[in-house]
């Protein structure tokens, strides 16, 4: 498809969606950058032909909830009391029409990343779904705010989904992200690109919980990022339990003094699956605190790699950067990799890392099996024990029994 035809296609589709001119210009900038970098555009630009006339409805239920199946928005609900407080939770297309003033600057800033990261240009160009959550100043939401992305039974087109969380000063929210496949989905490869951005203002707190349980026919690229202002806090709990190829990155910037983040990731790779998980925390300010804890299990012919990067920038005196990455190997064919990295550019700071890769204790397995426990159940118990330190701790979104069932399904026990 020629350049002029692609530009025309983008403009036509964006106008049909009633997108603002600044977003159309941003897509065209992304296209120009991709063409400069010899990015191979697909001949069929059917990404832009998806229907946006999917009905949404408001329903008073205990929790705010938004569900998207593929690239289609199918369900939204937000309690009236939260609406009255100024909370916004809606799909991306509605957000750019009704709440443009809140998100315009954040989206236009993405053009600064095009030169360093062509993947971001690709994402902006093809973005075809997503959500926007806005929590006003001093608003506290006790119930979880839930976002679901669900793989449909059939899906022929890649999905590029953008989720933006904007949490104002002194606000508090528990955010839950469910990325999953429905039962009996067809055996066709689906490409999912998920970009999640969390902006947390002064004194605000976010508990971010993500559960990834996609089937082996979904190839996933997930990029989550956070920017924390003065004395704000984000606790991340990510369960990487999908069965397909996964490339996941989390980047957190502790931008102002007193910002604090804890990242906990639990991952399991099995069969011939490959998962690459990178976590980066940057301390830009004084007395900022960052901690990364990654535990993973690899079995069969699976591959799992953890990369933890802690950066303390010049001027961030009193900063703390710690990380721990551990991988448990359960077969001779499995491959685990751990790559810890500390980049320190300031004195009077605290930094450290721990990393290990090891096999299951054969004596422990023998002892448990000698007590009449089936080998698969023994493996399950060992995995539970190994991942216990990174299991959900700050929320009750997944009970111990539900967590047990998730692991059993993953192990086919």
Describe the 3D structure.
With 413 residues, the chain is of the alpha/beta class. It has one domain. It has nine helices and 19 strands. The strands form two sheets. It has a ten-stranded mixed beta sheet, covered by helices on one side. It has a nine-stranded mixed beta sheet with strand order 3-4-6-8-10-12-14-16-18. Strand 1 (65-69) and strand 2 (72-77) form a beta hairpin. Helix 2 (21-36) crosses helix 6 and helix 4 (92-98) packs across helix 5. The radius of gyration is 22 Å and the shape is globular. The relative contact order is 0.08.
Give the structure's gist in a few sentences.
The chain contains 9 helices and 19 strands. The chain has 413 residues and is an alpha/beta fold.
Element layout with pairings:
Layout: H1 3-16, H2 21-36, E1 65-69, E2 72-77, H3 80-84, E3 88-91, H4 92-98, H5 100-108, H6 118-126, E4 129-135, E5 140-151, E6 159-167, E7 172-181, E8 190-200, E9 205-213, E10 218-228, E11 233-240, E12 246-254, E13 260-269, E14 274-283, E15 289-298, E16 303-312, E17 320-329, E18 335-344, E19 350-359, H7 362-370, H8 375-387, H9 400-411
* Mean of all residue-level pLDDT scores: 85
Overall outline: globular
- How many structural domains in the coordinates? 1
Which stretches of 5+ consecutive residues score pLDDT under 50? 40-60
Quickly count the helices.
9
- Spatial strand sequence of the major β-sheet: 2-1-5-7-9-11-13-15-17-19
Q: Care to count the β-strands?
A: 19
Which structural class do the helices and strands define?
alpha/beta
Largest sheet: 10 strands, mixed
